Amino acid sequence: MAEKQLISLFDDEYCTKYTILIASTLGRMKETRDSSFYENEHQLSEEERKEWELFHEKYDEWAITVVKRTGNALDPSTPKDAAEVKKFKSFSEAEKGECFVKCLLLLLISLEDYSSNSRQLLYLISKELNQPEEVPHKAEFITSSMLIETFEKIESNEKWYELSKSQQLRKRITMGLAGITGGALIGITGGLAAPFVVSGLGVLFAGLGLGTVVGASYLGAVITSAPMITALFGGFGAKMSMNQVHEISRGIRDFEFIPLDVSSNLSMTIGVAGWLESPQDAADTWYPLTFGDKSYYWGDLYALKFEVQAFVDLGKVISRILFTTGLGWVQDEVLKRTILAPLSAALWPLGLLRIGNILGNSWRVVFNLSIKAGEALANGLCMRAQGKRPVTLIGFSLGSRTIFECLLKLADRGEIGIVENVILMGTPASTDPKLWRKMRSVVSGRFVNVYSKNDYVLQLVYKTNSIQAHAAGLEPIAVNSSCVENFNVGDLIEGHLQYRWLLPKILKERLGYSHISDKMIDELQIQEKTFEQSQRELFNEDTKEQEVIFDASETSE
């Protein structure tokens, strides 16, 4: 088998060590997810128990597949190549760890579904082996480039592509990979894909002095199959095109995944904005994440847009409240009543209620559209529009509400291997722990709630429209930290619009995504000031009229 030839470089001690490491990490991953979304199994309702059992079934199915694949590769009884073992023993511990992380990546890809669970396993093991965070990131980047080049070479020769579709030939190729070297690989593929495979693996294992046999045998059939590579990358964006998503977004206008920084990486990120200043903002909001020499950490970056005009209209209403001089009293009035006297909105001044109702009209429209878009997003992910690779979801305001709804739908379907990380900011959604635990079941990595008690716009919407008693964007979620990470940004966020400008700053300085560009954070601060000035000029042309319409002295008594 391919694994036997491959693993010949690891001695018995390290075969056993890495086998135990994989098993223990799989156990910790399950325990963390298990305890985080259901803290006490005996208190589960019937519906929750079914969800819990579905998670176990899906997780165990994936874990068994991983154990079988890696177990065969790390079988200590496999005959060893003395020269390869000697070479491996000469490595430092750091080099041995790096070598194993890269080999594990190739093994996980060979499962033909690089799921969010698989990626989480890779990164946890890399951390356990004290590898710098750039090691798995760069390994993914190099491997994806190699696969793309291989695919392009296969596709460029119609004859080879037709042959690769033959299951019989693929079987022969897979078996032949067991003992190939660079020269044998050229013989098997007729020289069509081999140069890219050889050079790509050479880059991946650069500095370790290992032959191309390592990577070629680990990737197995994936390296010789154009259809498999296509499925992994979601048709290289084709499945995320407007035509392909039309079926999943019926009843929602402008539903589209906008490519921002796409080079067919082994992971991807989708950003969802919560309000728009202009139609271009659906994409422009997320461009700051594309800057910096480590922007590839986000994988392929897309922005999700939908119902653009409704989001633009909402942005204008919020700006009117925030930047009209005659309405400067609103913030103090809202915070005074929600912090010092969190009573019924019926006791609020009539002027405040009027403003809340004006905002509420636009808010309710977009709120309902966001829920519909969340279901459409879930449908797209389940159809593997993104390919067979993990997804990170980031959103703020009503964009977070879209992601919130998406996660609930994924949980209903037991899709535990699609979403890796989720970051929600200023979310207008329930703080019910049961819902957040349910969503946690389909998030393999980080699940973050960013909130601000000083977000008086969100306070105003919730109090005057009686949507819910509590909002995730205003307070922490009452669950343990392994379930949801809560971050209070009340010192940064006062008005709801600020999330758009402070998103990269929050990601870097509060959530620890250190690869985000400092230059871009500074540039956004300048853009925010320019935006605020333009909005004040726009909404203060008739200040006196605004003061008359919304007189703070009016009360409901």
Strand order of the largest sheet: 1-3-2-4-5-6-7
Any guess at the CATH architecture of the largest domain? 3-Layer(aba) Sandwich
Q: Choose one word for the global shape.
A: elongated
- Helix and strand content put the structural class at alpha/beta
Residue share in helix:
55-70%
Q: Which ranges are low-confidence, i.e. pLDDT below 50, for 5 or more consecutive residues?
A: 1-6, 167-196, 339-347, 544-557
- The Rg value, from CA coordinates, equals 26 Å
In round numbers, the mean pLDDT is: 79
- Please name the CATH topology of the largest domain: Rossmann fold
**Largest beta-sheet details:** 7 strands, mixed
Number of domains: 2
Distance between the termini: 83 Å
Oligomer: single chain
What is the total tally of β strands? 7
Task: Give the CATH level 1 class of the largest domain.
Answer: Alpha Beta
Question: Which range does the strand content fall in?
Answer: 5-15%
Number of continuous helical runs: 24
Please explain how this structure is put together.
The structure is a single chain. This protein is an alpha/beta fold and 557 residues long. It has two domains: 2-232, no CATH class; 243-455 and 468-489 and 526-549, 3-Layer(aba) Sandwich (Rossmann fold). Helix content is 57%, strand content 7%. The protein contains 24 helices and seven strands. It has helices at residues 2-6, 12-37, 46-73, 82-89, 93-109, 116-128, 134-156, 158-164, 167-176, 182-189, 194-204, 213-219, 226-232, 242-245, 281-284, 308-323, 329-340, 350-382, 398-413, 433-440, 456-465, 498-510, 518-539, 543-549; strands at 256-261, 268-272, 300-305, 391-396, 419-425, 447-451, 485-488. A seven-stranded mixed beta sheet has the order 1-3-2-4-5-6-7, sandwiched between helices. Helix 19 (398-413) packs across helix 20 (433-440). The longest helix has 33 residues, at 350-382. It is elongated and about 85 Å long. 48% of the residues are buried. Mean pLDDT is 79; it is low at 1-6, 167-196, 339-347 and 544-557.
